[in-house]
Design a protein that fits this description.
Elements (H helix, E strand, L loop, with lengths): L2 H11 L3 H4 L8 H11 L2 E5 L4 H11 L5 E6 L8 H13 L7 E4 L2 H9 L3 E5 L15 E3 L11
Parallel strand pairs: 1-2, 3-4, 4-5
Helix pairs in contact: 5-6
Length: 152
């Protein structure tokens, strides 16, 4: 199967409930969310295409309560970081601008955060590895539970 066909098939299926039930939270993430939520207003920014399935999954994991808002888009803008950039820019038009931290596990996340002028933190335990460091996050951690150090 050519790689394009695989990619299209993967995109069609990845957000279906029968596949999403295989997802799990990373070790220690509830502790990180609890700690971060004490001192920060958190907004989730994602490129998930199905907002309905995204919210269902956040509720099933019991983590929706940690975010004051959830921004999502299934747009196909290239470069991909522009989608997250645009989502956050639009959100900030209607919300108080303060000091922000952008935490992500992809180049898309870090480039969007950098272009927004935010303090960026890369987590290398997601779908990427040290290649993510090429886009120059301000800080990086190998495990999401290590982010708790930022809120201590």
């Amino acid at each position: 199967m050519p790689i394009d066909n695989f990619g299209n098939l993967w995109l069609k299926k990845i957000e279906k409930y029968e596949y999403m039930q295989f997802d799990s939270l990373q070790l220690g993430i509830i502790d990180v969310l609890n700690k971060a939520n004490k001192y920060n207003n958190m907004v989730l920014v994602t490129l998930r295409r199905s907002r309905e399935m995204l919210l269902k999954q956040l509720n099933n994991f019991g983590i929706r309560k940690y975010f004051i808002d959830v921004l999502s888009s299934g747009d196909d803008i290239i470069p991909r970081w522009k989608i997250k950039y645009n989502l956050v820019e639009k959100y900030l038009e209607n919300n108080k601008k303060e000091e922000h931290v952008f935490i992500g596990d992809t180049e898309t996340d870090i480039v969007a955060g950098n272009n927004l002028g935010f303090y960026t933190i890369a987590v290398l335990c997601g779908i990427r590895n040290e290649e993510l460091l090429k886009v120059k996050p301000r800080k990086f951690y190998y495990h999401s539970y290590d982010i708790i150090k930022e809120f201590s």
